[in-house]
């Protein structure tokens, strides 16, 4: 089947937001067969931040050609197209992803938009016959992630998650080392995200600059005025991370990488059967919504996965971030016979119980190159980070955020009493409270939020006996930007 502009538009239901190319499992988009030397033509959607790395990384892969760029910011789009043309690349610019997807000579869509656009952009692209490289977190909620997987399988598409640590053979070897029992049983798999997140201020509703198509930017989310400073629209495009309509806080922003690494060591391939979180947006008051301090407990049977988010510095008089076992951002796999420290996306260090380093694993390869190899082979098994892996790790962030959002303010002793039955939970909370105290936050006066303790049916990816938590597994979508359901 040739995908012409006319046939595409005839099969597009914009009124309901579902770009449906072939509505049944037996009617799929045309598939281009890639030879060993045939060019793979790529378009990057959203490239003011992570998208610039997509452009750079994909352009270094032999046989890849950048043919289009898409961004709702006309300044960003114009500068990107001009830069590409100055490099000798014949690139077209698009504001609307729907127009881009009509383009026949695009094989791959690389998506680095804000989180609330990830699922819709990926599914629309796969329905249009494109393979997808999708930034982390892959979804804005749990339901969306499952729909992306189903769409990828239905349309026989290759969909890689942007968790580049999965392409590190050093970390992979460390995972295998632990899973072979060299350090005994895992006691706790811990992820860390200690990154400076200062106040964004109290700005109130802001007017959007006319060079940004804010209707398109909002997409599936409600069309409401932004509450981050308007100058930042053209400068950093970043503070949307701290609002629930668009982002997932630092847990889903930076923390998704370390969450994924911790889960990789545990070898878990499903959501945790029980989760809770405790924290808050503490140390200042501003317009943002997501917590700058958060402890998450995922109660896996093998060992708990504990995640820590801290956005405040070491103390009120310091500009440095706190550290745990020497790292501010990383993963620490604590075992009976020692621990493994993963400080970045490329290496891991092994220590014995006395703290002496006994092993080092390091080295990585291009995550983009791995994706392109799978695009050519058409084998999902060739991917280092298939969409199914991205869905699980992203959803661990979402379920923890749901616990937090359904929680209530609680005094420190009440929190300690409630969590005392969970391994290392009280110790982790005590360190969090001490850190807040160093930043002049007294939890007896400014109480943290103790999230709801939630149990999950991991097979159905639904909570048990918690209808209000279930309602947060999916969102209401603004027409015509409705994420289509795939089964």
List keywords for this structure.
single chain; 487 residues; alpha/beta; Rossmann fold; Dihydrodipicolinate Reductase, domain 2; 2 domains; twelve-stranded mixed beta sheet; six-stranded parallel beta sheet; 31% helix; disordered N terminus
How are the SSEs ordered, and which strands pair?
Elements: H1 5-10, E1 12-13, E2 18-19, E3 40-45, H2 50-59, E4 64-70, H3 74-86, E5 92-94, H4 97-100, E6 108-111, H5 118-127, E7 131-134, H6 142-154, E8 159-161, H7 169-179, E9 186-194, H8 214-218, H9 231-235, H10 249-253, H11 255-266, E10 274-280, E11 293-298, E12 305-310, E13 329-335, E14 338-342, E15 347-352, E16 357-362, H12 367-377, H13 387-405, E17 408-410, H14 412-419, H15 425-438, E18 448-450, E19 454-457, E20 462-463, H16 467-470
Explain what you see.
- With 487 residues, the protein is α/β, with parallel strands linked by helices.
- The protein has two domains: 5-165, Rossmann fold; 168-200 and 236-364 and 391-468, Dihydrodipicolinate Reductase, domain 2 (2-Layer Sandwich).
- Helices cover 31% and strands 20% of the residues.
- The chain has helices at 5-10, 50-59, 74-86, 97-100, 118-127, 142-154, 169-179, 214-218, 231-235, 249-253, 255-266, 367-377, 387-405, 412-419, 425-438, 467-470; strands at residues 12-13, 18-19, 40-45, 64-70, 92-94, 108-111, 131-134, 159-161, 186-194, 274-280, 293-298, 305-310, 329-335, 338-342, 347-352, 357-362, 408-410, 448-450, 454-457, 462-463.
- The strands form three sheets. Strands 9, 10, 11, 12, 13, 14, 15, 16, 17, 18, 19 and 20 form a twelve-stranded mixed beta sheet that branches.
- A hairpin with a 4-residue loop joins strand 14 (338-342) and strand 15 (347-352).
- Helix 6 (142-154) runs antiparallel to helix 13 (387-405).
- The relative contact order is 0.15.
